[in-house]
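User: ok so my PI wants both of these folded by tonight, can you help

Assistant: No problem, let's get them done. Here's the first:
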Amino acid sequence: MDRTPTLTVIVPMHDVAPYLDEALASLSAQHFSDFEALLIDDGSTDGTVGIAEAHAAHDHRFRILQQEHLGLSAARNRGLDEARGEYIAFLDADDVLPDTAYERLLGTLRSSGSDFVAGAYVRLRPREDEAGAYELGEVQPWVTASNRSLIATTLTEHPEAIGNIVAWSKVSRRAFWERQRLRFPVGELYEDQVIAARFYAEAASFDLIPDVVYHWRIRAEGTSITQRERELDTLVACLTAMRRTLTTLQTAGVSAAVQARLALNLRMDLPRLLAAAADSSEQRGHVALVAVELLALAEPATLALVPEATLTQLRALASDASGSVALLTS
């Protein structure tokens, strides 16, 4: 019988042929080598499976699992159900790992005894001066929430950690997933956010390291989920995830983390979505209704973190939305 690996890396794949080779090469090159990689093909129709098979032929740690196209959450959940490792990590098949990523993350988590560890990430952006080339961006402050390592901390002690709310910047204990009965919501976009909120809220403790452990690709052709927010369904899904994340934190009673997340929503997320909705009154209306809710939840200290011009814009938007609702209900 094969020896049980320390780490299981779950790699969902759907029509990612242009990017998969680089992603899997970065996984094979990890300094930490005691892992299994579950390559979950989610009904690809391009050359994705062939590329995965070529890597699996040369790296015994890679195992390919195939299913009909059920979506990212279902693929990740399949990986969780099949995982054998003591620890769990995720790699999206269009992204890239620095070669010390799992060495640093696991080195911290195995010594701390925490439920999970989160590292920093940067955007991998298309270069304007060279077609097909990408360049790394800078680490943003909300991603790390600390410029030093924090070991065995909690969301009460460090609420700013809630800024790092993606699945793939973390390594976690498989026992934590099972103990908390955690799985990704199937059929939903921005599925990381509510699960990450539960991670932070329900962990006995977690670790933060400032090291960059992930390169998140912004696709040149604009086909990733976060690049499709001008589409109504995607925009509504983003707003829904935003609200559910806040509700999860409220239910957990971590009020400081609620305010930390609200500050990011008001300062960055709503202005971005409002810009995406500029050409559609229907989409603008969806953003406006969420702005009403978020402004009502935000404490004065939270509002003080939002640029005045942004706050004025959101308040005007919320005022218009409140007026429309009042007319409809009068």
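One down. Here's the second:
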Amino acid sequence: MKIEATSPTKQILTAEDIASILSVSKPTAYELMRREDFPLIEIGRCKRVFSDDFFNYLSQKAAKN
């Protein structure tokens, strides 16, 4: 069974998940993840983000606009 990025059981998101959620390309998702204010988790060369932190980040960005 594949767990979708929007599933409440998926706690850590990848660039592919972020790209799917935002309907952008994977390189654009990586560009977002390189921002200084992005709540990134780096495990070696892997880049991840906790889903709660990601959605809080989006909410904060939306509130500023």
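The beta strands are 12-13, 41-43, 46-50. The chain has a mean pLDDT of 89. Good luck tonight!
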